[in-house]
C-alpha cells in the first residue's frame, strides 16, 4: 500500500463522514420541529415508543441525535425513563437503515445526486428545497466517499502484512473490542458498519468478523450520549445509562444466541448469497429487531437498573410521587357531579404546588446562596408542567359525560385556571433565575430596592392566597379584597420602577441590577393578574 493509497483512504472516510453529517443535518432541517413534536407524543405505551424511535431515527439517519433529544426531554421532564427506553430501543432499529441503503452500489449515480443537490442548494430560495438539496448533496458525498474508500482499499487485499494484521479480528473478543473503540472514535455506529461493509466487499474482512464488529459497534455508539449526559442532571445521566445497559444486554444476548444456535448466521447469509454488503446490513437489522423484541418486555428492569446505579434522591422521589393524578382517575366511569368535585380537588392541588413554587422562588431571590431552593423551584416547575397537561387532558375527557350547562361552564373555566396556575409557576422559575443572575453576574440592587421587592412580593402572595380561597370555596365576598390587592400591586409596579430609575441616576444600583429589578416587578405584577383570573373564574356562573 502506497502513501497515496493511505491518503485516499483517509479522504474517502472523511468525505463519507461529512456526507453523513450533511445528509443528517438536511433531514433534520427539512423535518424542522416536527421531530421534537413526534417525540413529545410518546406515551407510556412502550411499543409506541419503539415505533416513534424507529421513525425519527430513519428520518434523521442518526440514532445518536435521537438519543440526544431523548436525554434532553428526560432532563427537562417532558419524558420519563420508562418512555425513554422504548424510543432508545427503536432508535437502535432505525439506525440500521443506513447500512441497508449503502448495501446498494449507487456509486455510479453519485455525480448526478451531487449535481442535483448543488443546483437545489445554490439556486433555489425556498428553505425546504434547499434542505432537500443538502440531503442530496450529503447522499452523493456519502457514495463518492464509499467509492474512494473501496478504490484505496483494493491494493490492501493484495498485502499479506495487512491481512495478517486484520487476522487478529478473527477472535470474537478482539473484533468486539475493535468495534467498540472504532465506533467510539467515529461516534456513529451506522458509519462504522458502512466502513466494515466496504472492507468486506474488498475481501479484507469476512462475514464472521463483521458480525462481531457490528455487535461491538452497537456498544461503542453510546459514547456520544454518555459524554452529552455529563452536562445534564441525574435523570439525563440515567437515560444515557439506559442506552449503555440495553446495548450491553443486547451484546450478551446475541453472543449467547450465536453460541447456542450457530446456524443463525448461515441462515442470514442465505438470504443474500454472494452479496456480503447485504449480508452485513441484514445482520445489523435482524440483530436490532430480534434483541428489541426480546428485551422490550423486560425494559422496566433496565430502567430499575439505571435508577439503581444513580439512586433517586429524596427530593426526586417526592417529585416523582407528585407527578401523577391523585383525584382524576377513571373519570369516564364517574358520576358527573363526583367528577367535577374530583376535578376541583386536582386543580387546587396543582394550585398549591404553583403557590409553593412562587414562595420558594422568592425565598431564593432574597437568599440566592441557597442553591437547594433553586433546585426545588426547577423540580416543582416540572411537576406543575406535567399536571398542566395531565389535568387538561382529563378535563377534556370529562366533556363526554352528560353535563348540564352549569357543569360545562365550570369545566371550561377550570381549564383556564389550570393554565393560570401553570403561568404562575413559570413566573416563579423566572424569579429564581433572576436570583441566580444576581450571584453569577454580580448584579447590585440597593437595599431600598430589595425592600420594595419584598413588599411587592408579600402583597402578591397575599393576593394569590385570597384568590385561591375564593376559587376553592367560591366565597366571592372576598373578591373586593383580592381586587384591591391586585390594584395595589399595579400601583407598586409603577411607583417602584420610577423609584428605581431615580436610584440608577444616583448610581445606587448598577445597570444589570436595574434590569433585574424591572423584570422582577413585571413578573410579580403578572402573578397578581393570574391570581385575579383565578378568583373570578367561577364568578359569573355563581351570580346567574
Q: Any descriptors?
A:
elongated; 544 residues; mainly alpha
According to DSSP, the number of beta strands is 0
Largest sheet: none
Measured between the Cα atoms of the first and last residue, the distance is 92 Å
Helix content: over 70%
Order of helices and strands: HHHHHHHHHHHHHHHHHHHHHHHHH
Strand content: under 5%
C-alpha Rg, in Å? 30 Å
Mean pLDDT: 84
Number of helices: 25
Low-confidence stretches: none
Please state the oligomeric state of the protein chains shown.
single chain
Strand-pairing-aware structural class = mainly alpha
Shape: elongated
TL;DR of this structure?
The chain is mainly α.
Describe this protein's structure.
This protein is mainly alpha-helical and 544 residues long. It contains 25 helices and no strands. The longest helix has 36 residues, at 405-440. It has helices at 3-31, 34-40, 46-60, 63-76, 81-94, 97-102, 110-123, 127-153, 160-166, 172-186, 189-201, 207-220, 223-229, 234-260, 263-271, 276-295, 299-309, 314-322, 336-366, 371-397, 405-440, 447-473, 479-505, 511-535, 539-542. It starts with a helix and ends with a helix. Helix 11 runs antiparallel to helix 12 (207-220), helix 13 runs antiparallel to helix 14 and helix 21 (405-440) packs antiparallel against helix 24.
